[in-house]
């Protein structure tokens, strides 16, 4: 078989697979009228989708369709565009939830997606247009004079000098996961996804909280985004606010409280 023939066969196979996928129900399939909204969970920097496991299980037990979307952590515009494209595959109402840097992403990604009915911020940035995560991190335990004491850096190939930032294993439990069992915190540190360093200074685009209702959970023991900063952002957004005694990874430490807030947002969406 020549090269053109191989390409034709491969293309036909892909087309067939796409057709089958379109015919089959997906995680974001159209809900029956009266069904619960789809809950889309977005993790933040130095985490992955597994950080939502406790919340996901509880929401599924309550009958919600849950999509845990991987955040590539390349930058606000890129990450938001990826999430926006995913949201457009879902029909029916959506409750969009972001943790930490994920708050930057959901704020941008939901713009123009008419079936996103509410936003939920969990220990998260709630930026205004033009603001960066770095600007909103004043007082963070990560904002140290010598970043090498907190971060390991890995050069991004063809990244123009940009680097991936990993939180060192020793400060990770102290900063992110105080109150989480040490063994579990160590597992989370080992599985963290890095954030491109440039993402911290990348400004937000237009934000969806100006036209959508929002909810905010503030962990009072958060050392990554100081509670006072979270309170300021949530007040500015007019969010319904709940406080819990939890570290930055409140969805790991207090998944029940996070789930309750999401279901309240879903009930009002």
What can you tell me about this protein's structure?
The chain is an alpha/beta fold. Helix content is 34%, strand content 17%. The strands form two sheets. A six-stranded parallel sheet has the order 2-1-3-4-8-9, with helices on both faces. Strands 5-6-7 form a three-stranded antiparallel sheet, with no helix packed on it. Helix 3 crosses helix 4. The N terminus is likely disordered.
Q: What descriptive keywords fit this protein?
A:
three-stranded antiparallel β-sheet; disordered N terminus; 269 residues; globular; 9 strands; 9 helices; alpha/beta
Describe the structure concisely for a colleague.
The chain is of the alpha/beta class. It has helices at residues 3-23, 53-61, 76-87, 102-109, 171-175, 182-190, 227-237, 250-253, 255-267, and strands spanning 38-42, 66-69, 94-99, 116-122, 151-155, 163-167, 195-196, 214-219, 240-244.
Which stretches of 5+ consecutive residues score pLDDT under 50? Answer: 1-33
For this structure, the quaternary state is single chain
Order of helices and strands: HEHEHEHEEEHHEEHEHH
Mean pLDDT: 88
Largest sheet: 6 strands, parallel
Count of DSSP H/I helices: 9
Into which percent range does the helicity of residues fall?
25-40%
Strand-helix topology:
Elements: H1 3-23, E1 38-42, H2 53-61, E2 66-69, H3 76-87, E3 94-99, H4 102-109, E4 116-122, E5 151-155, E6 163-167, H5 171-175, H6 182-190, E7 195-196, E8 214-219, H7 227-237, E9 240-244, H8 250-253, H9 255-267
Parallel strand pairs: 1-2, 1-3, 3-4, 4-8, 8-9
Antiparallel strand pairs: 5-6, 6-7
Helix pairs in contact: 2-9, 3-4
């Amino acid at each position: 078989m020549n090269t053109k023939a191989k390409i034709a066969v491969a293309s036909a196979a892909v087309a067939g697979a796409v057709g089958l996928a379109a015919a089959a129900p997906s995680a974001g399939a159209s809900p029956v009228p009266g069904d619960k909204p789809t809950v889309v969970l977005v993790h933040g920097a130095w985490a992955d989708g597994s950080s939502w496991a406790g919340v996901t299980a509880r929401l599924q037990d309550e009958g919600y369709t849950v999509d845990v979307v991987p955040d590539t952590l390349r930058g606000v515009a890129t990450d938001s565009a990826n999430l926006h494209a995913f949201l457009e595959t879902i029909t029916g109402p959506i409750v969009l939830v972001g943790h930490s840097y994920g708050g930057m992403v959901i704020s941008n990604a939901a713009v123009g997606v008419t079936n996103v009915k509410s936003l939920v911020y969990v220990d998260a940035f709630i930026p205004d247009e033009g603001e960066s995560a770095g600007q909103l991190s004043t007082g963070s335990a990560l904002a140290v004079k010598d970043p090498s004491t907190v971060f390991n850096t890995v050069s991004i190939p063809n990244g123009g000098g940009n680097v991936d930032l990993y939180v060192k294993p020793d400060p990770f439990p102290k900063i992110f996961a105080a109150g989480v069992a040490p063994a579990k915190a160590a597992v989370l540190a080992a599985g963290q996804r890095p954030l491109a360093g440039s993402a911290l200074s990348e400004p937000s685009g237009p934000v969806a909280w100006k036209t959508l209702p929002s909810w905010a959970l503030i962990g009072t023991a958060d050392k990554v985004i100081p509670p006072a900063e979270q309170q300021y952002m949530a007040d500015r957004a007019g969010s319904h606010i709940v406080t819990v005694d939890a570290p930055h990874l409140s969805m790991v430490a207090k998944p029940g409280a996070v789930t309750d807030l999401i279901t309240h947002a879903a009930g009002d969406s």
